[in-house]
Amino acid sequence: MESNTSEAIMARLLSRIPNDEDKRESSIAYNALASAAIELAQVYAALAAKGGGTN
Q1: Exposed (0-12), middle (13-18) or buried (19+): which is 12, by Cβ within 10 Å?
Q2: Taking the model in full, what pTM does it have?
Q3: Which of 11, 14, 6, 12 minimizes the C-alpha distance to 35?
């Protein structure tokens, strides 16, 4: 089962960006996805706390 930490979510999101794009920390792509990864991790944690998540 996949981990739903913000780090794991961020890795999955970045893996979908082409390798010729800059994905380093502080790049536009990284910064655009970082907040979404944190929010998604919080949603997964809330779902798990209610018994509906799959962590």
Answers
A1: middle
A2: 0.82
A3: 6
Contact 6, 41 (CB under 8 A): yes
User: What tens digit of pLDDT does each residue of 3-54 get?
Assistant: 899 999 999 999 999 999 999 999 999 999 999 999 999 999 999 999 865 5
Q: How many residues does the chain have?
A: 55
**C-alpha to C-alpha distance for 36 and 7, rounded to whole angstroms:** 11
Structure tokens of 7?
A: 């780090």
Cα of first residue to Cα of last residue in the chain, in angstroms, is: 7
